[in-house]
Amino acid sequence: MVDLVLQGPERGKPQRHLLDLSRPERREAMSDLGLPAFRADQVS
User: Distance (Å, rounded) from C-alpha 7 to C-alpha 42?
Assistant: First the structure.
């Protein structure tokens, strides 16, 4: 016999998107990725 599971899968936090970050946070995120910080200004 098969057990019936009525719970859905647990969901984690959504990934953060670069456009959701402030300009200084984007610059820091780019540096963390090993890219030059000015690349964040090109996304803005």
Answer: 43
Domain total in the chain:
1
Query: Which residue stretches of the chain have pLDDT < 70?
Result: 44
Domain span including residue 32: 18-44
Residue 12 located in a structural domain: no
Say whether pTM exceeds 0.90. no
Q: Give the DSSP letter string of the chain.
A: -PPP--PPPP--PPPP-GGGS-HHHHHHHHHHTTS-THHHHHH-
